[in-house]
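Quick one, T. Sequence first:
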Amino acid sequence: MDIQTNIINKVSQSTLLSYDLASLHTTGERIVYDIKDNLFHGLMLKEKDFRDFIKENNWAFYKDKNVAIICSSDAIVPTWAYMLLVIKLNPYAKNVFFGNLEQLEIYLYQQAIQNLDLSQFVNQKVVIKGCGDIFVPTTAYIDFTHKITPIVKSVMYGEPCSTVPIYKRKD
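Structure tokens:
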């Protein structure tokens, strides 16, 4: 008896749109600028010394980097000091953000999602890829789901061969 079995790949034939949020990953090194290194005895910022540093520092070091500005010391730093840093970093850095590296990553994904062309998702069944080589913050999944839910037919999480249903529009 000769039985021929045709294996059909239903995943490749499906109309699912698989989307990997890692594709929104902003390029460029992430770096922290800790203003505590500019504090006098780790306690306070001396305006003259800080302004001299601002003038003399080689800001080109930050070219094409994503810079998170923090103060890891328990010191009161005047707001203008951060503003001066931004003025000097702007011509070189790709992005400048106040907060730590985790907060910077969240910010970068928020910006990418905000600027995303959503036309490709209209009336689609979207699978948001869940695993990958690039870390994607949970907030990116939340922001992206919030953004596409009003325009898609459905949202699933995982891989096209194994998804977790999240949302289905009632027509």
